[in-house]
Amino acid sequence: MSEEKEQTGAAPKRMSLKKSSSSNAAMQGTKKVQVEVRKKKIIVDPKARKAQLEAEALEKKAAEEKAAKEEQERKAKEAAEKAAADKAAAEKAAAEKQQAEKTEVKATPKTEVKVAPKAAVKPKSAPVPHKEKEEDKATAELRKAQEEQQKRKSEEEAKRLAEQARKLAEENEARWAAEEAARASDDDDDDSLTSQYVREAEARQEREAENRGRHRDRSGTDRRGSNKRFEEAEQQNNRRQKGGKAAKGVKGAAKLNQQQHGFNRPAAPVSRDVEIGETITVADLAAKMAVKATEVIKCLMKLGEMVTINQVLDQSTAQVVAEEMGHKVILRKENEIEEQLLRERGGSISEATMRAPVVTIMGHVDHGKTSLLDYIRKSKVAVGEAGGITQRIGAYHVETRNNGITFLDTPGHAAFTAMRARGAQCTDIVVLVVAADDGVMPQTLEAIQHAQAAKVPMIVAINKMDKPGADPQRVINELMQHSVIPESMGGENQFVEVSAKTGMGVDELLEAITLQAEVLELKAVHDGMAEGVTIESRLDKGRGPVATVLVRSGTLHKGDTILCGLQYGRVRAMRNEKGQELTEAGPSIPVEVFGLSGVPSAGDEVTAVSDEKKAREVALFRQGKFRELKIAKQKSAQLASMFKESNASELKVVLKADTQGSVEAISDALLKLGNEEVQVKIIGSGVGGITANDATLAAADSAVIIGFNVRADGPARQVIDTESVDLHYYSVIYDLIDDVKKAMSGLLKKEVRENFIGYAEVRDVFRHPKYGAIAGCMVVEGMVKRSAPIRVLRDNTVIFEGELDSLRRFKDDVSEVKQNTECGICVKNYQDVRVGDRIEVFEKVEVARTLD
Question: Which of 317, 431, 479, 658 has the fewest CB atoms in 10 Å of its CB?
């Protein structure tokens, strides 16, 4: 092998598929032969390619039809063979039956001899064998006729299928012949359409390429730059050619380019309908007109406005720009979606029927409003109130002989003016509770003013008539000075003497309320979508935002979509004041609603809507307007403070409470405490427990955190301890306002602080006939002291504050129990201890205050 390689020289080069390639092969002699292989340029015509694809599709279809024909012939053949086999089997069965019949005939005489004695007794059974023979013969003839008929049908079906296959083959052959002829004519047309100049140009390019290859072979260099310049010159020369034939070639190239893409630029500007609200950004306006934002900015610059892409335009400016660019403008209102959503609710076609009256209990603090309502409801709400006073508005429904009565219990403290005003606006009748031994007080006068402003009838209940110092005539005389005149003296107000402790006069009070409701003829539509008002709202740890809603008209169902002020949501669950689940609530029924997107403000209107998407849009629009209004107020305050010199110091407060109404009442009370020297500035407020964000905000602004009936969670306590933030817990609004007032005035000599001792977690509850509910607890942190006051917490919310009745370790009374130790705790005057509650133990220590 090595000798042959030496004789033949180097091996020939491998040939490639490039347009031109050369190979040098040395023969046995001394002559060197150069072989050049060139790939011919192929121009693919789209029309020819399409025809080729169609031909391939036809061939594939013909193959499928041929296969189908063969399958049909095979099935016909199998059917014929099966029919023949069935016929042979039938003939064989008939022959066997005839042989069996002959055998029976031969055996008949013997049978008759054996049966002769019985035949004498029963002569009717003798002809049975002959009858069975006739029946078998008839059955055989019938089976034979059926087999012949089946065979005849199989032969006819096979003939029909064969004829159908023959006709299909003839049609396919004719169609294939026509397609071949059409394909041949198309090829001729393609050859004729191919321009002679194109063929000449191809040949010229091939010769040029051949010359360049030979020149490169001689010089050993690649002249790609010259080739490129030559091709550009050739293309330019072709473009300069004019005439019919040259134009035809250009037209063909344009046709190929049109086949490559299908987009045609509009010949004229497109006019669109542009909807513009009261405000719109430049980017949104450009998107609605389907133009670039730079075009809109350019148009505004021509009009003398220098804007950016995110700048907000008013409605008139946006209208001018859109009309300048040739579009039709449709002006919209900002609240058009809200109006449309409310119009879509529609009205109910049913008639209004009688409904229960809504009665608001109003009066001064500690005059027995909640106690009177407890006696009517047979409950004990006042016992669990912190400080023995009501600090939130409550809604209760009581069943009576008629449609029932819905009561709204309002606080009597001076700070809860907004709650009393809200209760007066939602009510039909006001019951003014005045203590017979105390007379008319400031909040009594305020309640009278709210009732007169709301233009609702008022019934006066003179409470505490069981006390020795009760003087109802004094109360009547004081009320007459404020235009509250009893009916016995020609006035319009009913006066009822009652006692919440003994129940005296309660029935007369209910009869007076029922009589007043009948006079008013209170009616509401029960069918249709619900409308109502938010009485109170809070943030529950496990259930999220909870709103107490009083339905005014319609029926609120579980699963309805509601719009509640700045919030929206779907009603996931409804409960009454007793915690019972409800599926629907009619007019004058108060319910707790779960499923809102956030905590609504007390007093917000509640409306059931049909479209959740539009409800979300309306809620977001309202939130945006509220945010803009809030920012505008802050800017105006900052502008006013620039021109006003004030040396007043500020006490910054972060306020968190258990309900929205408490937040409003405490905020108003604190803001009224300010004077020229010191002011209260609430930098943050909300509903729910104190979180880490609240603690961080207070630490950043050196503010005081005030928690009203709420507690801080674990992360918040870590931030508070790390940043040394001043934190105060309150459960009675008196103490809160007094402490803030002392801090502002600087007269607070001693500060009462609460030192955390420890807390125990309730693991189980046992019932004892003598002591009542006994909580089996585990001391989780710190220790539990027998003499220290305690709080019962449920979901970080204070539900009771008091002291321990007993503290035991096993069966022994102990004074204290340390951490990680089990114990039994009995809370004094409180029996509603549940598993999972926490009993917090603390002590109050007076510490001298220092000014840093």
Answer: 317
Percentage of the chain lying above the pLDDT 70 cut? 72
**How wide is the angle at C-alpha 136 spanned by C-alphas 130 and 137, nearest 5°?**
90
Expressed in angstroms, the distance from the first to the final Cα of the chain is 108
pLDDT interval class at 779 (50, 70, 90)? very high
Distance between CA atoms of residues 533 and 587, nearest Å: 11
Tokens at residue 445, please? 């006068």
Note the pLDDT tens digit of each residue in 404-414.
888 887 764 44
Neighbours of 325 (CB within 10 A): 18
Distance separating alpha carbons of residues 268 and 280, to the nearest angstrom: 27
For residues 511-523, give the mean pLDDT. Answer: 86
Helices (H), 107-127: 108-121
Taking only the tens place, the pLDDT of each residue in 526-541 is 888 888 888 888 888 7
594: β partners? 546, 573
Q: Where are the alpha helices (DSSP H) in 35-107?
A: 46-106
Radius of gyration, CA atoms only, the chain: 51
Instruction: Report how far Cα 668 is from the mean position of its chain's Cα atoms.
Output: 35
Q: Is the pTM of this model over 0.85?
A: no
**C-beta separation of 747 from 819 below 8 A:** no
711 pLDDT exceeds 70?
yes
Predicted local confidence at residue 195, as pLDDT: 58
Give the pair of three-digit tokens for residue 361: 């209990």
Spatial separation of the C-alpha atoms in residues 567 and 618, rounded to whole Å:
9
CA–CA distance, 541 with 279 (Å, rounded to integer) = 39
Sign of CA dihedral 777, 783, 788, 789: negative
Band (638; pLDDT cuts 50, 70, 90) = low
pLDDT at 42 over 60: no
Q: Give the Cα separation of 39 and 514 in Å (integer).
A: 108
pLDDT at 48 over 80: no
- 3-state SS, 207-235, equals HHHHHHHHHHHHHCCCCHHHHHHHHHHHH
Instruction: Check pLDDT > 80 for residue 773.
Output: yes
Tell me: pLDDT of 113 over 60: no
Strands (E), 288-424: 312-314, 328-331, 353-354, 358-363, 394-398, 405-409
Can you tell me the mean pLDDT for 817-844?
A: 89
The size of the chain, in residues, is 852
Its sign, for the CA torsion 345, 347, 349, 350, is positive
Q: Are 291 and 270 in contact (CB under 8 A)?
A: no
Nearest 10 degrees: Cα torsion 143, 148, 153, 155: 140
The residue with tokens 């063909």 is 252
Q: What is the number of other CB atoms lying within 10 angstroms of the CB of residue 562?
A: 26
754: nearest Cα among 659, 617, 847: 847
Residue closest to 356 by CA, chosen among 408, 301, 398? 398
Average pLDDT, the chain: 76
What is the average per-residue pLDDT within 297-305?
89
| Backbone conformation region of residue 785, classed left if phi is above 0, alpha if psi is from -120 to 50, else beta | beta
What per-residue confidence (pLDDT) applies to 229? 55
CA 615/CA 337 separation, integer angstroms:
9
User: Which DSSP letter does residue 401 get?
Assistant: S
The pLDDT, as a whole number, for residue 778 is 92
Are residues 807 and 715 in contact, defined by beta-carbon separation less than 8 angstroms?
Answer: no
Token match 């233009």: residue? 455
Burial class (CB within 10 angstroms; exposed 0-12, middle 13-18, buried 19+) of 170? exposed
Backbone angles phi, psi at 806, to 5 degrees: -155, 155
Three-state helix/strand/coil letters over 124-177: HHCCHHHHHHHHHHHHHHHHHHHHHHHHHHHHHHHHHHHHHHHHHHHHHHHHHH
Q: How many helices (H) and strands (E) does the chain have?
A: 21, 36
